[in-house]
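Q: I'm writing up a methods section and want to include an example of the input and output format. Could you take the sequence below and give the corresponding predicted structure tokens, formatted cleanly so I can copy it straight into the document?
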Amino acid sequence: MKWRTYDPDVLPLWVAEMDVPLAEPVARALHEAIRASDTGYPVARTYTDALAVFTRDRWGWELPSERTALVPDVMLGIVELMKLITRPGDPVVVNSPVYTPFYQFLTHLDRRVVEAPLTPDGRLDPATLRSAFARATGTEGTRAAYLLCNPHNPTGTVHTAAELAEATRLAAAHGVRVVADEIHAPLVLPGARHTPYLTVPGTERAFSVMSASKGWNLAGLKAALAVAGADAADELAAMPEEVSHGPSHLGVIAHAAALRHGTGWLDALLAGLDENRRLLARLLADRLPEVRYLPGEGTFLAWLDCRALGLGDDPAAAFLERGRVALNSGPAFGTGGAGYARLNLATSPEILTEAVRRMASAV
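A: Here is the clean output for your methods example:
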């Protein structure tokens, strides 16, 4: 999709695909499955066991394998969880600016989005969360939820354990259920540490949805896991059995190989992403000093404040039209997105350098 959507003269730094070779352990596992004609139905245990190894080794967290469910991907997993804990018309709190499918999927599900914007520096704000939770639960009989992005897309913020604990406390105080999208969890860069949401005190009734998709560039190989807190296991068990038919068997094989045998590849990737975020900061300081860029602690996404350039609410449109560089439009990420653009820095230094040169030419 990334390189096929726009005309050939456009540099695509938009959708969250990485310009990297497939990890060798993943390629090997897929080739072996094809050679063995192993193209049947998926087995959840393959994924669960591999993720348990990864979470233990990476974060010291013992994944509760008995409280997991195989789902097609993270967003469809979130949809199924929202069906379990909310009803049509119920509110779901999100921290804008946030991943655009949060709005699309929740609206299609007939849930009402309530925004709790991040601070100007991209952090969770307790006072804003408190106000949003109060608004979401102001009507008697409402079942409210909080869809947390951890780490956060598009800002690259890695929420601290203390920030997550306070958000959890506020949600509990207002009777708000929490679902954490942790698809970017493997992509925390040097200097920060991911806190798995279900390790935070008070998350017994919460859920997390995890996947190797973003960390190993496997978006076309569909699979993910929903994980329940200790007191939410019965609800997760009520998820319809047919949901588990959606993941790809080859996706499960690929994700499991990545989680078990692809950590060396991941570490090399993270080192390269760290270099690229530093390169981007230098390039912007040199060519577009008016753009404000706070390098993210996680993900491979850069959230660029272009308001000083005078390009209006959607600077990505100007960069595409005048510079032939495709970025994501900031307004699509909700409140706080006007005047911003999201840039995907998971590409070669040469392409990143040329992209910034083109962006500067568009001003």
